[in-house]
Structures are given as C-alpha cells and as structure tokens.
Amino acid sequence: MSRKSAADERQASRAIAVSRERLARDIEAIAECSESEPRIGYSRPTFSPAWRRAVDYVAAEAKAAGCEVRTDAAGNLHARPTDLGWAVPAWLCGSHLDSVPTGGRYDGVVGVVVALEALRLRPDAPLELIVFAEEEGTTFGLGMLGSRSWAGTLTAGELAALRNREGESYLAAGAPHGVAPERLASERLRPAAYRGLIEVHVEQGLALWKTGARVAVVTAINGRKQYRCLMSGAANHAGSTKMADRHDALAGAAQAMIALESLARELDGDADHTVMTVGRMAVEPNALNVIPGRVDFSIDFRARTPAVLERGDALLRASLQQAAAARGLDLDLACTEELPPVPLDKALCRLLREAGARLGHALPDAASGALHDAAILAPLLPTAMLFVASEGGISHNPAEASRIEDIELAARIVAEAVRP
Amino acid sequence: MSRKSAADERQASRAIAVSRERLARDIEAIAECSESEPRIGYSRPTFSPAWRRAVDYVAAEAKAAGCEVRTDAAGNLHARPTDLGWAVPAWLCGSHLDSVPTGGRYDGVVGVVVALEALRLRPDAPLELIVFAEEEGTTFGLGMLGSRSWAGTLTAGELAALRNREGESYLAAGAPHGVAPERLASERLRPAAYRGLIEVHVEQGLALWKTGARVAVVTAINGRKQYRCLMSGAANHAGSTKMADRHDALAGAAQAMIALESLARELDGDADHTVMTVGRMAVEPNALNVIPGRVDFSIDFRARTPAVLERGDALLRASLQQAAAARGLDLDLACTEELPPVPLDKALCRLLREAGARLGHALPDAASGALHDAAILAPLLPTAMLFVASEGGISHNPAEASRIEDIELAARIVAEAVRP
C-alpha cells in the first residue's frame, strides 16, 4: 500500500466518522421537533410549529454548508451551493420532514439528512437539496401535495379545497410558510433546471432487512388501486335467527378478506410487493346482539406492473362477488383511486449502482410498495431512489429505526453519484 | 248438527271476527305511539312519551274490560278483573311495549294485546295482564329490567347505576311512571299470588314460518354466553409490508369469524337455534392505507343446553386461539355475560298444547333463541310461552309482521287454557 493511499484511507475513515456523527446529530435535532412526546411517537404535521422548526433547522444547516435557500410557491424548501446558482442543471436530492401522527424518526427525515450530508461532502457538486411539503397525506387528506403542486398535477383550485382538521385550506395554512397560489404557475418545476431526482428513503418494509441488504436501488414504485366496498344483507336478531337463515354482511366481508389475502399471495412474485389490505371498516348497526346488516370497508391493492394490477382487479371483483353471492348479500364496489406503477429511470439507477460499486458495495434492486414524491416527479425528470434498510420492517410507528451506518452509506453513494 | 251447536258455531265465528278486529285495532293504536316515523320503524323507548301513551292505552282498554289497574314499584303495569281481586292466585299473561329503536309493530306488543283480548273473552277467568317495563335493553344498556327488578334479581343499587343516553338512571327516569326504589322489596313478586306465567311473543325467527306452523309451544329458552375479544398485531404500512410479513389483526378476526360460523353450524341440531354472532367490531387505526393493528369485537353465542354451551365455549376459545396464532397475534378473550338455558314448565306447556287441541290445533314445540321476560320469571313461577309465526323471520325491523289470524289463535288458546 502506497503512502498516499494509506493517507487517503485515514482521511476517508475520518470523513466517515464525521458523517455518521453529523447525520446522527441531524436526525436527533429533527426528532426534537415534534408535537408529541417521543414515548408515543414523532408528530410533525405540515405547517405546524414543529414542522417549521425542523425545516428551519435544515435551512440553517444548508446555509452553514455554503448554500443559498429558497421556498417555492408550493411550500417546498430548496437549497443550492451559492456558487452554483439556480440556473445550472443540477441533481435534485431530498425527501420530506412532515410525519404521520406519532410516527417514527426516519420516515422522510433520512432522505433530507442524506441530501444535507451530500452537500457537505461534495460542496462542488451540481446538487440541490429539496424538502417536499406534505408528503404523508394525513394533514390535508391527500399526500404528496408539495411535489404535486410543484409538478403542476394539482391546480390552485384543487389545493384550495383541501383542508386540515381545523378547516384551514392548504393555501391558507401554508401562506405564512411561503405557499403562494398566484406564483404556482410561474414557479412550476422546470425540468431543464435538473439532471434528475435522487430520493433516499427508509424502506418501511422487511425485504432488505430479511436479506441483510443495507441499501438498495429502487427500480419501480408500485401502482395502487383503492376501493370502497359496501356489502348489505339483513340486520336481524342474533338469538332467534338460525345460522342457515342469515344474510350476515360482516360474515360476507370476513370471507372476502380471507379471499383477498389468498389472492394477494397468489399474485405476489419475488420482491414484487403485491399486497391487498382491508384497513378501514364500519359495521351497521354494530350492536352485540344484532346480525350486521351492512359493512362498509376499504381495499388497498398495490402491484408492480399494470398487468398484475389489471389481473388483480378482475380477480378481486370476482372474489367479492362470490363472497356476497354465497350469503345473498348485495355488493356495491367502487374504485376510488388508481395510480399506475412508476418505473424509475434505468440510466440513473445504473449510475447509483456504479457509485455503490466504486465504494465497494453491490447494491441489490428493490421495488417500492409505498408511494413517494419520486413517483410524482418521475414522469418529468429522470428519477431514482435508494432504500435504506428498516429494522424489522417497522414504520409509521415510534419503533421505526434504521442503522446510522446504512444511512451514512446512502449519503456516500449519493455524494459519489453526483460528483462533477 | 243440532240447533244448539249451530248456534254455538255462529257465536264462535262472530267472536273470532270481533277478536281479530279488536286485536288489529289494539296493534294499530299501539303502533301509533312511536317516537319515529312508521316509514323508518317504530320506536318506544321505556319511559318516553310514546311508551307512556301505549301503556296508557292498554290500561284504559283493561279498565274498559272490567279490570282494576296498578303499577308496581319496578314500573310494570298489572291489570286484573275487579271482581277477582289481587289476592287470588291468577294466571299472569303479558309481555312488553318498549321497542328497539326503529323496530317493528309486533315484538312484545302481540303478547300484551293477546292478554288484553283473553281478559275480554274470559272476564271470569283468574287472569292478570302484565306489561313488563324495559325488556329490550337498548335504553338503559341491560334488558328485562322490569321483570328482573320485580323478581328481585336486580337491586335498587344496580338499577341506580343504569343510565340512558341522557344520563338519567332507570330510577330517575321511571319515577314519574311509578318506579319507587323504596317499595321494590315490599312489592316484589309473590309466587303464591300466581298460578303461572304465559308469555305470548312473535318468534323473531324463521322456524315456524318455514314449516307453516302458526303458533308453537316454547319448551325452552336458549342460554347465552357473550364475549369481548381483542386481537392485537402490528399496525404497519399497507404498501410496503409484504403479505408474509404482516400481523394483520383484522385478517385474524376475519379468520376467526369464518371459524365461528362453521362451529355454530356444526353444534346446531334440529330447531336448537345454536348460533354465534359477531355483531360489534372496532378496527384500529382504521385507516385506508394502514394494516389494522388491533381489532375489538363481540361474540354472542346461544345454545339450548348447558352441555352445548360448555362444549361450544371450549371450541370457540380454541378457534380464536388458532386464528390468532396463525398470524402471530395476541388474543385477549373475556366472557362478559353468561345466562344458562331455561327449560319451561312441562305441565304448563302441556296445558297449552291441550288447549290448542281442544280448539282443533296441534301445536308444535319450539325453542326460543331470543331471551324474554319469561326467562327471568321461570325460576320463580311455572312459566310457558307461545310463539306466533314471524313472516319471513324478520324482527327488530319495520318490516316485522305476523298474521292477525295467528295472533287471534294465540289469544283463543290463552283464553281456553285459563278458563276457570
């Protein structure tokens, strides 16, 4: 080993130690910005004082790293090295700081602190940090509002209709934070200003954790179909109505749930994350001694390819019809949302794989079962994602965790990929 | 045919026509006492103005038939022929006028109007009409309050704790209607004052209707076990958590529901009405895109014999444990109520069968899946019930119906059974 490479190694090792410490400090500082006690989880609703403090922390750190900072008309924070200027095509890198109520420390945060650390590690790179506003969808009833508004897929009129629990619209609640509907059109995302988007995010699933992978390249974001399903039978006396004489809507829904679970398992291939979930359910009349007459439930169905989504849709409808018919129930099924699968940019995925390889890491591929701001920008910019392993696959939960060395590896890969 | 028997027949035929008209008029008059529009159903919560009007109607009709009327300290109305007096052992006959919210015209009402008609048909019989207060249990959270209080199985202290939606206790709400806790003990049911109880009720099930039976002798009231079941898994992201990595509490509950349904069918014998019902369910966090972490649901299990209840309890527990274990869920199962099966009085059942036979009707036997005030009094008095067929088995529903000729037949059987 030459003297130079030994010195390089020592310097790299010091840099890594510094990166880990800075990343850990950033995550801790953002975790301290919460509306709820850490014991029950981390809560940063978009435009809340806690969210504001977290965004201000990142802006101050970006400035300290030599950046100029601005907020666009949709409420997203941007930071670029002052010397770079806003006109040069740059790599966009970031994620979100808003959280679900009583969520974890890593969801969204990891992608922001990794972008911050990449700016510190590579101050000469054409790199822009972004903090997307309102990704989760739990504050205004629709997710990815910052990216959708910036991308122009949501109009100011649609934004005006979205309200939080206090009845304030996104536009009104966001006004003190830079949201400016009159400038939405003029400040819309200009693809020419960007080379592409790299979003780093915790996986929120078990695929990496189970295989021991630390960081993976996301090659696709799964598509989603959501449904509202009403099954109606006959409410009747729970004591005097024999089993054979019932039209029990909840028993029908139970049979449908078991069938959908089997169907999702059948449709699922390796790492495809084909999933079906009944998450919401309301039973009527919901009384101990009355056979349920009506059940209203949601179905969330995600798959990697349009073909699986279409086939799954047909099989799901057949399963529900069969479950309803078996008990003489009426079925009313409506598809309430449809988002196609989003393949990510092949060239940019390769660039990330090559950066990983140069750092001595062979990055596996992954599919994202969850939606991300990257899915909104992918049709407009070359877009790719890195996943960082989630301990035990736990997310949207205070127990959410990722290893600091894996987060640091993601930061080094981004810094390597965007080097000029 | 002799002149006398022809005259008898003509008189009987006139009496029947008169009975049907009076019974139909009574049912119509009571239906008009409702807090809700008939279109959505009949609502007579205990102690409501509508309930009061219905009880007052029955009291006035009983007086018109030559009765003296009184209300006991528990709020039950009693009427006896004035000439009979309150001391002579009499047959007790009646049911309830309170209803579930938006219920039907016949539940409870049939047993009251049949007793009224028997008093008219047989003014010389040792017969006492009773209107039990608060049978349904939907107003104060516990059923058969009038009969339980009169029988002494509920104390004034327990009664004081039961409150309606307005927060008023049974004692406070009942005070203007004669409820008097200080007299509960002294006015308690004296078995020596009664020969027995005959309660007529609509079946609220399909057994009679399906076999074409008009009226049946109830030989037993099924026992009941009720449970509260909590299944806990892990709330997680509906998009990124693969099917194999889930601990979906709602999927576990669905599997349990299907298992319980099969179990009830296996346990059920001919006319045994062994039933299991999941009527109430709450899902957490109950969000479209989150795998349910916790489900809280009720189980209502009824069977005819203690042996079936015990065997069913063990199999039900095993089914739930299996459903929970299959998905790595925690199970917390608590039995919240336990009422043993109530065999009805064999001699009194025979008396009713013989009365039916004298009128030319062979009455089949039936079991009651539903609970009734008769179950409360059965340990204290010889008790029997007649069921009147329910059209289509529908009950607790505005579509509830029974044929007026079947109700009239029940009235004639009661009048025949109690003749001096």
Shape of chain A: globular
CATH superfamily of the largest domain in chain A: Zn peptidases
CATH class of the largest domain in chain A: Alpha Beta
Number of domains of chain A: 2
Share of β-strand residues of chain A: 15-25%
Spell the H/E element sequence of chain A.
HHEEEHEHHHEHEEEHEEEEHEEHEHEH
Low-confidence region ranges of chain A: none
Kindly report the oligomeric state of this protein: homodimer
CATH fold assignment of the largest domain in chain A:
Aminopeptidase
The largest chain-to-chain contact, stated as pair and per-chain residue counts, equals: A-B, 62 and 61 residues
CATH architecture of the largest domain in chain A: 3-Layer(aba) Sandwich
Distance between the termini of chain A: 27 Å
Number of strands of chain A: 16
Fraction in helix of chain A:
25-40%
Give the class of chain A from helix and strand content and strand pairing.
alpha+beta
Mean pLDDT of chain A: 93
**What does the largest sheet of chain A look like?**
9 strands, mixed
Task: Report the total helices of chain A.
Answer: 12
